[in-house]
Amino acid sequence: MSRRVVVIGAGPAGLAAAQAALAHGAEVVVVDEGERIGGQFWRHHDTLTDRRLQHQLPRFERLRAVLDRATVHSSTSVWRIETDGGLRVHALSGPADGAARVGLTIEADALVIATGAHDRALPVPGWTLPGVTTAGAAQALAKRDGVALGRRTVVSGAGPFLLPVAASLAHVGGEVAEVLEATGLAAIARGWGRAPWQLAGAAGKSGELGEYLASLARHRTPYRFGQAVTRIHGDRAVEAVSVQRLDADWRPIAGSERIVECDAVALGHGFTPRLEAAIQAGCDISSDRFVTVDERQATSVAGVFAAGEVTGIAGADAALAEGAVAGFVAAGGGLDDERMRGPLRARGRMHAFAERLATHAIGRGWTAWLDDETIVCRCESVTRARIAEFAGPGGDEAASVSVTTVGANGDAGGDRSASSRGIRLATRAGLGACQGRTCGRSVEEILGRPLGLDRRPVLSSVRLGELAACEPSPPK
Question: Domains in the chain, please, with CATH?
Answer without folding.
Answer: 4-118+272-335 (3.50.50.60), 121-269 (3.50.50.60), 370-447 (no CATH)
